[in-house]
Design a protein that fits this description.
The chain has ten helices and two strands; from the N terminus they run ααααααβααβαα. By secondary structure, the chain is mostly helical. Strands 1-2 form a two-stranded parallel ribbon. Helix 2 packs antiparallel against helix 8 and helix 3 runs parallel beside helix 5.
Length: 222
């Protein structure tokens, strides 16, 4: 994966990035954070937080689409627009086996080198990051103690970077994705169903899947 450089860019470059998926939101946040280090302006820190929060929200939306196998209904989509803070709850409602499917997909990726590197997100941790970033998008106190105070700006920038940088590192390390049961070969689907219902554990699932190597011949239903 070609990871873009976020060091030393100016505002015109940042504003020229006219793409709005989760990765680009987080990328612009990293760009504004770097710009803030060089200028120590409050506006750049504010922009970094706004981009990061948008990025987290869009990432959760992407996770919701992935969790439903790209079959998100119009009704559920409209519900997401009304309840932006309820992404995690909606994902659990629409995809109750999502975490279990994540674990099963990890097993498949380990056994089949032809599958691209996939990344998996902890939705509760994403919402915690969203909350930490959101604190800076509200009134933060008297300006002489906060937005016009270099000590406050420096410490706040460190806290924001501690949230955003791990997201950037992870989001650029692979692709979001899952192997849904509707796309599985019947043999793989049978093992998944036993794993989903906890009849077998991860080691047993891995052992049985390993018998069918190369798995590439069994991953997609004919």
């Amino acid at each position: 994966m070609n990871i873009p450089n976020h060091i030393g860019k100016d505002p015109n470059y940042i504003l020229g990035i006219d793409s709005f998926d989760s990765a680009n939101y987080i990328y612009r946040s990293m760009l504004w954070l770097d710009y803030h280090k060089r200028t120590r302006t409050y506006s750049s820190l504010l922009y970094a937080c706004a981009e990061a929060r948008q990025g987290i929200e869009y990432l959760l939306f992407e996770e919701l689409v992935i969790s439903t196998g790209a079959n998100l209904s119009i009704e559920d989509y409209k519900k997401c627009l009304k309840e932006r803070k309820s992404f995690v709850k909606i994902i659990k409602k629409l995809s109750p086996n999502y975490e279990r499917l994540q674990e099963f997909t990890k097993i498949l990726v380990e056994l089949e080198p032809s599958i691209p590197n996939l990344i998996y997100w902890n939705h509760s941790l994403l919402m915690r990051a969203w909350g930490n970033i959101s604190d800076y998008l509200h009134w933060v106190g008297a300006r002489n103690l906060t937005t016009e105070n270099h000590n406050w700006l420096d410490s706040s920038a460190i806290k924001v970077e501690e949230v955003v940088e791990p997201l950037w590192i992870k989001i650029t390390s692979g692709l979001n994705g899952l192997m849904h049961d509707k796309d599985m070969h019947p043999i793989v689907q049978e093992i998944w169903n036993e794993f989903r219902t906890k009849q077998i554990n991860a080691e047993s699932a891995k052992f049985r899947l390993n018998i069918y190597k190369p798995l590439s011949a069994y991953l997609i239903r004919a």
